[in-house]
């Protein structure tokens, strides 16, 4: 914002490309709305939702029909966290909070954890699910960090990778177990689908919440220099 | 569709576009991020109007809440210049601890 603007051409080119992309997307949207004649995938998917183990169609698609895409999303989250950790040490923690914030955190954080658990369970039959619950847990971590808890609710540094990779690991492990049972990777038997989905969602919720809170911490806590040792980085 | 819902939808659309333009053209990064948080909340309402409640929940929590917090922290870091007056102002706003000393790892300037 303070750099002198030397040329307008990059801005014009970017605006033109984005405008073209927007027109392309608008054309695709209108074609899908008006011009498509065949059987729509949404109706086929909605017809199979009762077999998927959950009754919320969004959860059925995310965790059953397109479970592999959700696995890749968890991998992207983990990769983003590794990128954040590789950029440098964690930012300086906040000081002691004002009394109002301190008391508020005491009320809000348990409510956030409870709401996260509720959203995780209710995601099977109502709007909710692992990502929403994980976002609430991440918000609880952000509140803790803003109120002066430098750890943002996360465990010790050498346990954090266990938590964050645990979601992806559980997902892959479940997929491989399904393959070993002869069903195919991430293909669930309709009888046990509900509990398999709940298991995956629990691990994913914890991983997403921990990853988002660690992203707000802003860097690798293991690389913060300790003041007692005069500037040497902690291992 | 009755007139009330139509008015609501129209106001939502104008609000979203206006907030987006304001966030993109604001002079200070902090103001832009706060406008983006407001934009995220209105976008959550848009998802709710499009009958996608899961998306509305996710947008309110992640798009407005967590993204806003992350971008505020980034704007705070980006605004940190070697300027004692600005440091005092930022310290009093963020309620910092006193600096423990020069860090062993240099932060890269933007």
Verbal overview:
The complex is a heterodimer of chains A (235) and B (110). The two termini of chain A are 37 Å apart. Chain A is built from eight helices and no strands. In chain A, α6 runs parallel beside α8 and α7 runs antiparallel to α8. Helices cover 64% and strands 0% of the residues of chain A. The C terminus of chain A is likely disordered. Chain A has 235 residues and is mainly α. Chain B is 74% helix and 0% strand. The radius of gyration of chain B is 19 Å and the shape is elongated. At the A-B interface, α6 and α8 of A face α3 of B.
Topology overview:
The complex is a heterodimer of chains A (235) and B (110).
Chain A: H1 9-35, H2 41-48, H3 57-65, H4 67-86, H5 99-122, H6 130-146, H7 160-180, H8 193-217
Helix pairs in contact in A: 3-4, 4-7, 4-8, 5-6, 6-8, 7-8
Chain B: H1 3-25, H2 29-49, H3 53-78, H4 84-94
Helix pairs in contact in B: 1-2, 2-3
Helices of chain B, by number, come to 4
> How many strand elements of chain B?
0
C-alpha-based Rg of chain A, rounded:
22 Å
Average pLDDT score of chain A: 88
Q: Helicity level of chain A, as a percent range?
A: 55-70%
**Quaternary class:** heterodimer
Low-confidence blocks of residues of chain A: 230-235
Fraction of residues in β-strands of chain A = under 5%
End-to-end gap of chain B? 50 Å
Q: What percentage of the residues of chain B does DSSP assign to strands (E)?
A: under 5%
């Amino acid at each position: 914002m303070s750099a002198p603007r030397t040329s307008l051409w990059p801005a014009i080119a970017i605006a033109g490309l984005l405008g073209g992309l927007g027109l392309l997307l608008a054309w695709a949207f209108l074609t899908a709305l008006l011009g498509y004649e065949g059987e729509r995938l949404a109706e086929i998917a909605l017809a199979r939702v009762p077999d998927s183990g959950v009754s919320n169609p969004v959860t059925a698609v995310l965790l059953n029909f397109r479970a592999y895409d959700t696995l890749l999303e968890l991998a992207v989250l983990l990769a983003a966290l590794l990128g954040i950790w590789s950029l440098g040490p964690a930012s300086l923690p906040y000081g002691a909070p004002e009394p109002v914030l301190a008391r508020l955190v005491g009320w809000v954080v348990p409510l956030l954890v409870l709401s996260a658990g509720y959203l995780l369970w209710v995601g099977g039959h109502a709007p909710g699910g692992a990502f929403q619950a994980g976002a609430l847990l991440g918000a609880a971590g952000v509140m803790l960090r803003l109120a002066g808890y430098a750890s943002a609710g996360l465990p010790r540094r050498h346990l954090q990778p266990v938590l964050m990779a645990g979601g992806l690991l559980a997902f892959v492990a479940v997929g491989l177990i399904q393959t070993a049972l002869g069903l195919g990777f991430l293909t669930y038997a309709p009888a046990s689908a509900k509990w398999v989905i709940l298991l995956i969602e629990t691990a994913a919720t914890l991983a997403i919440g921990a990853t988002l809170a660690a992203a707000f911490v802003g860097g690798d806590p293991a690389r913060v220099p300790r003041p007692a040792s005069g500037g040497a980085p902690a291992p | 569709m009755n007139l009330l819902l139509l008015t609501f939808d129209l106001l939502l659309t104008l609000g979203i576009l206006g907030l987006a333009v304001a966030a993109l053209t604001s002079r200070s990064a902090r103001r832009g991020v706060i406008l983006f948080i407001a934009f995220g909340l209105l976008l959550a309402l848009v998802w709710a109007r499009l009958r996608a409640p899961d998306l509305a929940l996710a947008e309110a929590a992640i798009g407005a809440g967590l993204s806003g917090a992350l971008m505020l922290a980034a704007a705070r870091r980006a605004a940190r210049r070697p300027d004692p007056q600005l440091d005092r102002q930022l310290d009093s706003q963020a309620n910092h601890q006193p600096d423990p000393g020069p860090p062993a790892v240099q932060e890269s300037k933007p």
